[in-house]
Structures are given as structure tokens and as C-alpha cells.
Task: inverse folding
């Protein structure tokens, strides 16, 4: 076996371990606000498969996540498919059904997360392989570890959600096409690009953005040959059209193989998913609310992109800032080669991807959660890794003491370790990382998202109360995020501004009221309830990273005037 092959194998093993270890620790320590719903929906998906009710697998943009949870169901509770319970719309009922068979939703979530972590690791190894084909072992390792150690990506890649997988599928699709066009026109890379694009679509419909990106790559190849030959390259045009058609055909094949709904009602499936996305983007609400796509109601929010950029400045590390700056400076370096500089080309492409996602979600009128643009983070991670390699090599060319390869490798390892350890103080919610430069400039940390972190600590706190199983708790995000950690009765605090008689009676009949202060205060929901609570000291407050996240009130401490004020 050649030395290069041995080095590559050892690198892959090391990369696998470095990717897995920080993601496997504490997979059952907390729950995000979206995950309980995905368990419920995937339970329905699994049940529909068993009963050949493929039309009930309509949630196409979640289908990859649903297959992952289905695998966890087969591992943990395979009998679920044949117990005759039907479909659940209520998360509490789903959890209760599992309990009847001595199964815990939290354990199902843990196993689902574990499977997804393995999938994420495989995708990162594939990304390393593609980068290795393009630029060699050193740069590929730096860029891949920069992704793996990115605090925001690390945090979300441990959660059961779309975003981590989506960003990697998008990366693989773009890199695969670049290799096919500029490095090695082997069918494997075209198939990998198209299959990744299809899986990205089946992870989240926003991956539709890969289509114009691939068309841009193909067009750029034609333009490059046009400039080189000084005449219209008909052969290149035909080849690009043929490539695009094969690429699209593979995507269609992936859709039909992976998505059961496409087997029985492809039109219904596609219209439901993409219609919902269009409605969210242009009408600000899903189709279930708008009922119809009405172009007269279409509009865009042109003020959203700056807020995404501001949020990214907070969530990215100073080392990423440095790497991106160095990547930009690399364009100033002289290039003596007559061939196109593939490093600059990839940096430009990934920079465009990052800006595209920021703009795409920045102008959409629908939901604008910051994790929707994780593809921007991953793209900039690769750019930063490439920039740091350029910076270290430049340093070696200018300063004799840094010329030795061992010194340059030591600097690189140190930088990557610093990138990795930057997330550790935020365990287990790595995605709540705050850039220390931004915190210093603005006088402390901020809450930007509020994804359920801290509510499990409230659940554990109340679970220690005497007779906790007989207590009734009212909380925002109570199902799953809180209830998986509290054994008593749970009631929803509705996410609404309306404080009606029903809510007041629910508070009266509860033992404790849990306020997710980090998010409710910033959104001032419900304003009347929060105002009334200001006069009452909470029994317990949960702080994370210097931020007040959760307030726990004992309902018995509420005076009659509290209820009178709410009713007015």
C-alpha cells in the first residue's frame, strides 16, 4: 500500500473520530422546539408505510428526516407500525401512546439523533473527499474540520432537524459538479452532485436554490471556453445541456425512490411542498393559512438580509472572520499559471452561495429563523479554511522561521483546535455561541433565537419537587421540550397575545407557571401576562451564558389582584 493511501486512510479515521466525538456526548440532555413534532409526524410516516397509505407521506421536505426517525423506530419500537392506533395530530397523545408500551419519546429522539449524527459524519467525509480531489489532503482537512468545529453548525448537527444535512447536501452537490466540469469528468461526480441535490430537496424545499447555482456553473464553463476559443463553442453548449438534463433526470429518480408519496400522487406531493414554500416566502404564511397562492398578495421584505448578517457576526468565530479575510486577500496574489485558478473559483462560488441564502431568506416574508441559512455558515467555513491555508503558506514564504512544513502544520493544528474548543463552554447548546468580539463591542451576550434551551432545566428542577407526578405545570413549548423531563401533568401556555378566560382558568388550576423569558420577553407575548408577572417574584430563575432564560412561578403565590388585572 502506497504511503499516500495510508495517510489518506489515517486522515479519514481521525476526521471521523473528531467529527463524531463532540456530537455523541449528551444527545439526550435537552430538546429543541421543533423535534417533538418531527417525532410525531415521522411516527405517522412510519405507520403510513406499513399500511401502504403513501398519500399520507406528503411532508416531502422532511422526508430525509422522516426516514431517519423511521430507522430509529425500527430500532426502538418496530411494533408501532401494527398496533392500529392510526395517526396522531396531538404530541401529548403520541407521547402517551408510547408510554403505554413502556417507550419514551426522549429515547426515540436520542436514537434518531444518533443516526443523524452518523449521516452527518458520512457527509462530512464525502465533503473531505471532494475537497481532497480538488486541492489535496491539507486544505481538505482544514476546510472540513472548520465546518465540523463551527459552533453554530456543530450545535444544529446534533439536533434532529433539516439544516445541517441540507447545508452538506448543497455543498456536495456544488463541489461534485465543479470536479466534473473542471477536474475529472467521471460520471460518479455528476451522479453524486445530482443525488445530493435531490436529497437536499427532500430535506428542505429551499434547496431548490441549487438549480440556478448548477446552471450558473454550466454557463460559466461555456463562457470560459468561448473566451478561450474566441468563437461560439457549440460542443460545450451541447455538453452543458446534456449534463443538465442528466443531472435533472437523476434528481427525479431520487425523488421517486426516496419519497413514497411520489409513488401514488406526485402532483399532490410537489404542489403541497413547493406551494407551501412559495406561500411562506411571498405571502408570509403557509398554504394552510392562505388557502391559495394569490399573486396579488405576493410581496418581499427587503430589510431582512442585514439582520441575518448581523446575526452571523455574533454566531461565527473570530477565526472564521480571519479566514474569510485571508481568502479575500488571496485574490490579490499574482497567478502565473495560464490555467484558471480553481481555488479562487471555488472561493467565489461558495461566497456566492453564502450571499444567496442570506438574500433568499432575507427578502422572504415567511419565517426567518437564523438556522435557515446554515448553508451560508458551511460555505464560509470552507472559504475560511482555504483562506487560513493561504495565510499560513504566505507567512512561510515571507518569514524564514515559518518556512518549515512542520511549523506551518503546527500553526494549522493550533488554529483548528482553537476553532474546536470555542464551542465547548456552550455545551450542550453549542449553537448559542457568541463571538467574544461582538460581545465586547456591545456589552454582553444576546438572545437571538431561543430554541428551547433551558426549559429542560426547568423540567428537572420541578421534577425534584415532592409529589412531582401529581403536579400540574403550564409552560410555553411544554410538549417535549419541557414534558420529556417532567413527570407530572403538562399544559400549553398558548403562543398568543390573547389572554382570555380559558388561559386564566388554566393558570388558576396549575401548580406552577413556566415562562420562557428569553423568547417571550423579546417578543412580548402575551404582553398582559408578562406585565402582570413583573410584580411577582419568581420562585426560580434559570440563567445561561449571562442571559435570563426561564422564570418559574408558584401559582399559589399569585394574589387575587393578579387574576383581576388579567381579566380586565
Result:
Amino acid at each position: 500500500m502506497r504511503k499516500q493511501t495510508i495517510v489518506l486512510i489515517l486522515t479519514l479515521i481521525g476526521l471521523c473520530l473528531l467529527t463524531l466525538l463532540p456530537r455523541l456526548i449528551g444527545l439526550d440532555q435537552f430538546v429543541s422546539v421543533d423535534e417533538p413534532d418531527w417525532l410525531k409526524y415521522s411516527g405517522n410516516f412510519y405507520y403510513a408505510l406499513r399500511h401502504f397509505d403513501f398519500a399520507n407521506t406528503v411532508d416531502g421536505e422532511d422526508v430525509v428526516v422522516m426516514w431517519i426517525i423511521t430507522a430509529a423506530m425500527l430500532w426502538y419500537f418496530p411494533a408501532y407500525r401494527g398496533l392500529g392506533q392510526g395517526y396522531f395530530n396531538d404530541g401529548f397523545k403520541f407521547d402517551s401512546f408510547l408510554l403505554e408500551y413502556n417507550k419514551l419519546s426522549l429515547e426515540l429522539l436520542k436514537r434518531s439523533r444518533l443516526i443523524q449524527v452518523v449521516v452527518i459524519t458520512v457527509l462530512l467525509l464525502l465533503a473531505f473527499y471532494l475537497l481532497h480531489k480538488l486541492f489535496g489532503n491539507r486544505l481538505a482537512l482544514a476546510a472540513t474540520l472548520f465546518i465540523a468545529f463551527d459552533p453554530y453548525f456543530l450545535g444544529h448537527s446534533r439536533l434532529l432537524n433539516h439544516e445541517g444535512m441540507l447545508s452538506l447536501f448543497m455543498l456536495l452537490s456544488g463541489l461534485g459538479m465543479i470536479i466534473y466540469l473542471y477536474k475529472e469528468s467521471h460520471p460518479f461526480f455528476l451522479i453524486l452532485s445530482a443525488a445530493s441535490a435531490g436529497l437536499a430537496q427532500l430535506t428542505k424545499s429551499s434547496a431548490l436554490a441549487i438549480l440556478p447555482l448548477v446552471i450558473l456553473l454550466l454557463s460559466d464553463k461555456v463562457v470560459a471556453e468561448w473566451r478561450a476559443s474566441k468563437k461560439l463553442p457549440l460542443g460545450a453548449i451541447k455538453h452543458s445541456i446534456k449534463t443538465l438534463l442528466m443531472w435533472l433526470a437523476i434528481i427525479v429518480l431520487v425523488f421517486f425512490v426516496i419519497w413514497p408519496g411520489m409513488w401514488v400522487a406526485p402532483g399532490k406531493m410537489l404542489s403541497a411542498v413547493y406551494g407551501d414554500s412559495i406561500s411562506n416566502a411571498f405571502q408570509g404564511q403557509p398554504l394552510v393559512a392562505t388557502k391559495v397562492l394569490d399573486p396579488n398578495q405576493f410581496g418581499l421584505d427587503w430589510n431582512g438580509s442585514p439582520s441575518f448578517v448581523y446575526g452571523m457576526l455574533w454566531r461565527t468565530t473570530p477565526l472564521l472572520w480571519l479566514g474569510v479575510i485571508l481568502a479575500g486577500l488571496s485574490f490579490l496574489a499574482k497567478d502565473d499559471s495560464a490555467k484558471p485558478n480553481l481555488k479562487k473559483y471555488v472561493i467565489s462560488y461558495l461566497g456566492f452561495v453564502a450571499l444567496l441564502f442570506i438574500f433568499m431568506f432575507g427578502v422572504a416574508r415567511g419565517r426567518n429563523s437564523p438556522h435557515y441559512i446554515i448553508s451560508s455558515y458551511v460555505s464560509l467555513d470552507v472559504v475560511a479554511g482555504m483562506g487560513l491555508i493561504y495565510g499560513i503558506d504566505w507567512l512561510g514564504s515571507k518569514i524564514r522561521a515559518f518556512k518549515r512544513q512542520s511549523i506551518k502544520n503546527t500553526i494549522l493544528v493550533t488554529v483548528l483546535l482553537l476553532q474546536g474548543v470555542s464551542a465547548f463552554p456552550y455545551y450542550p447548546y453549542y449553537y448559542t455561541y457568541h463571538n467574544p468580539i461582538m460581545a465586547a463591542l456591545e456589552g454582553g451576550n444576546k438572545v437571538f433565537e431561543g430554541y428551547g434551551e433551558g426549559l429542560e432545566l426547568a423540567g428537572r428542577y420541578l421534577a425534584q419537587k415532592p409529589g412531582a407526578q401529581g403536579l400540574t405545570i403550564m409552560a410555553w413549548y411544554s410538549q417535549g421540550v419541557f414534558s420529556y423531563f417532567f413527570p407530572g401533568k403538562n399544559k400549553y401556555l398558548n403562543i398568543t397575545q390573547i389572554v382570555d378566560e380559558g388561559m386564566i382558568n388554566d393558570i388558576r388550576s396549575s401548580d406552577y407557571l413556566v415562562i420562557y423569558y428569553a423568547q417571550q420577553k423579546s417578543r412580548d407575548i402575551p404582553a398582559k401576562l408578562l406585565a402582570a408577572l413583573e410584580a411577582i417574584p419568581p420562585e426560580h430563575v434559570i440563567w445561561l451564558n449571562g442571559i435570563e432564560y426561564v422564570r418559574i412561578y408558584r401559582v399559589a403565590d399569585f394574589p387575587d389582584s393578579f387574576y383581576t388585572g388579567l381579566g380586565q
Observations:
- The two ends are 81 Å apart (CA to CA).
- DSSP finds 25 helices and five strands in the chain.
- Residues 512 and 554 are 5 Å apart (CA to CA).
- The longest helix spans residues 105-135.
